[in-house]
Amino acid sequence: MSSPDVQVSRGRIAGRIAWLLSAAGHPGSFRTWSLVANDGIIATAGILEGFAGAGATHATLVTAATSATIAGMLSAGGSQWAEVAAEREAQLSVAEEEAALIARQPEAELAELVAYYEARGLDSPLAKEVAERLMARDALNAQLETEHGILEVKTRADVALAGIGSAIAYALGAIVPLLITLTVPVRVEAPAIVLSALVSLTLTSIIGARTGHMNLLRTLMRTLFVGISTLGISYLLGRLIF
Ligand SMILES: [Zn+2]
Predict the structure, then answer these.
(1) Cα of 3 to ligand 1 centre, how many Å?
(2) pLDDT tens by residue, 144-157
(3) In this structure, what is the dihedral angle of CA atoms 109, 114, 116, 118, given to the nearest 10 degrees?
């Protein structure tokens, strides 16, 4: 039997994990992350194709793959973190402005909401009733949602998860060409990277389409088109220029 203390902390950990999974399991997150993983595959494989086209040695290819993976992972995580942090900042400033307006001129804010529902097709008495009820329940949320399209203000945890999740997703993608570089002999490097990139892009497309409500065939065509042209152009430029 575990003590109540242990049970409490277990409950807390389980709660944290459940929260993280529900945030991570958001369809939007998976769609984003499958795209970031594609980025990791395509950018790393593209850089390697350029080096391979230029006739780089095994040691150079390994160095290129490793630094491309690390730099790409940090840059993908960092830019996603910065983007969501900026979004949260903008949402907080809008929320502050709206809260001040609601305090200063509640009638005008109510009128805004009534006009919004009238414009969406409700007749005036019904629009007024809906607006009044929403304002009574949570005036700020009602204003943020209708006027600014903000359903939920991003939390600090959302910001952190966006950065960490993107860095991990990028690394998971980039590790595919990196592993190929480490294991495959240098003379078959270029075709092996192309093949592994196509297989892994197909996998991320399936995951992205399944979890993100996207059409599989169109997702796959888009991804493979971007992947094949990037690798092809990089290889050719490597051959021609160096
Ligand atoms: Zn307003």
Answers:
(1) 51
(2) 999 999 999 999 99
(3) -160
